[in-house]
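Quick review question:
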């Protein structure tokens, strides 16, 4: 049974192909159209998907009619009554017919659970908005998933965080990760004001924040606002994790776009409520293109790694990467299959030597990012505990989902955030043998156990996907891509 899964007309369209329990391919539309967070599919991604066809079934990640009832309730009359806002209308352009629709949160839950290493778990999904559900808790045993609790729109922790993203001058539903990075520079002096004006803890909102909070506290320092909302969201999530833990399982599957908040994730893990936590590397809506297939089939997927997209042939170019790092301190890598998920994990990465005070500025200049934003380190799995204090119960962090205090921060200034933490990626030979052996070789040559790893793009641009994109990158930004 070969199945195509689709998520589109949202903030990050994606497609996935599964055969039985094998994941054959999964990719984001933006990497093909070159439009960041592209809402729509395009001919190039569809063509690549079709190389894995023909398909026995096509599954869509949410229920569009149910979504329209919510949109109607929210006053989005144009969208809710328009046929052109239906996914089948969009897919008609590519000759694709949807056979089955899965509820938005059921897709999230399945994305997490059916890729997890567990055979029983509690599943917690928290996002901004889909159909009606914004928070769901499920109990899972074997292949059976049962919903136990939900919170519905307009109450939404994701919408709350997005409203503050917009208040701080950032793009909601896209730049929440920047708001999270800003939090380390502020003081949470507006925590109480947020509760007073907006939040009925732990998860109800006092008003509908779908259209933002305007210029709330216009004279406030936005770093303080960022710090305040980060504290509030973490406290609300802590209540939810506590509630989820009462179902009795020691395994938590956590997903939805809010699970990308790695600063909150670390504090939540430190609560020690669960022995094991699984966040799949693409827990937002794009990942649901894969999960909706598992939900429809009620079956576990053989999860190996997030390297599921377009392939660039050839060996991982270890020697030429090291040569470039020694000469120019940084180098691009475009090798193997592209990452499925928002993080570059070594196959479409910009790597740099994390030592020395000038590297952060050097990389920021190329990437055109705000100076305050931290870069992440990638380190051999066996070395991580020597340099980082991972949160409780977290032994490895292969997908950059947790922050950890760096115990040797002064030696690696380029990868330390203002609060002394790093969003660490650990790597094992099984996960990515090229990147693993590169780090081994780099350590042998220099004594340095890690590299700075950031995505191979500039601000506002999708990651490089093909060899042609990589060559264009070299011409445009003057960084060699191996
Ligand atoms: Fe979602």
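Suggested answer, residue by residue:
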């Amino acid at each position: 049974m070969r199945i195509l899964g689709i998520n589109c007309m949202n903030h990050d369209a994606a497609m996935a192909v599964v055969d039985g329990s094998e994941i054959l391919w999964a990719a984001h539309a933006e990497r093909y159209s070159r439009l960041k967070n592209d809402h729509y599919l395009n001919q190039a991604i569809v063509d690549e998907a079709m190389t894995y066809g023909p398909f026995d079934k096509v599954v869509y990640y949410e229920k569009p009619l149910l979504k329209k009832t919510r949109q109607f309730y929210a006053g989005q009359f144009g969208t809710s009554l328009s046929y052109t806002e239906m996914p089948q209308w969009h897919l008609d352009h590519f000759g694709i017919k949807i056979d089955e629709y899965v509820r938005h949160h059921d897709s999230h839950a399945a994305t997490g659970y059916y890729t997890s290493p567990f055979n029983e778990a509690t599943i917690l999904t928290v996002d901004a908005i889909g159909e009606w559900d914004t928070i769901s808790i499920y109990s899972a045993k074997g292949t059976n998933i049962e919903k136990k609790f939900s919170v519905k729109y307009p109450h939404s922790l994701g919408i709350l965080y997005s409203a503050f993203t917009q208040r701080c001058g950032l793009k909601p539903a896209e730049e929440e990760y920047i708001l999270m990075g800003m939090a380390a520079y502020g003081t949470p002096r507006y925590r109480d004001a947020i509760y007073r004006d907006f939040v009925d803890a732990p998860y109800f909102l006092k008003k509908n924040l779908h259209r933002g909070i305007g210029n709330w506290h216009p004279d406030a320092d936005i770093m303080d606002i960022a710090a305040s909302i980060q504290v509030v969201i973490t406290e609300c999530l802590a209540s939810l994790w506590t509630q989820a833990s009462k179902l009795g399982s020691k395994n938590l599957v956590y997903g939805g776009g809010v699970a990308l908040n790695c600063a909150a994730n670390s504090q939540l893990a430190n609560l020690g409520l669960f022995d094991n936590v699984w966040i799949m590397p693409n827990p937002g809506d794009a990942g649901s293109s894969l999960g909706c297939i598992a939900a429809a089939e009620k079956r576990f997927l053989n999860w190996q790694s997030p390297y599921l997209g377009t392939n660039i042939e050839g060996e991982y170019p270890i020697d030429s990467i090291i040569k470039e790092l020694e000469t120019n301190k940084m180098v691009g890598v475009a090798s193997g299959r592209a990452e499925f998920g928002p993080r570059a994990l070594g196959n479409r990465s910009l790597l740099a030597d994390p030592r020395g005070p000038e590297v952060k500025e050097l990389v920021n200049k190329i990437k055109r990012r705000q100076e305050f934003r931290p870069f992440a380190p990638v380190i051999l799995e066996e070395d991580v505990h020597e340099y980082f204090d991972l949160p409780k119960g977290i032994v490895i962090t292969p997908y950059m989902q947790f922050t950890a205090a760096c115990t040797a921060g002064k030696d690696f200034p380029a990868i330390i955030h203002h609060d002394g933490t790093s969003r660490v990626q650990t790597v094992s030979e099984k996960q990515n043998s090229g990147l693993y052996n590169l780090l081994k070789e780099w350590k042998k040559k220099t004594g340095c156990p890690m590299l700075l790893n950031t995505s191979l793009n500039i601000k506002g641009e999708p990651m490089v996907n093909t060899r042609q994109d990589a060559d264009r990158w070299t011409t445009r930004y003057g960084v060699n891509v191996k």
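Why it works: The mean pLDDT is 94. Residues 222-245 form the longest helix (24 residues).
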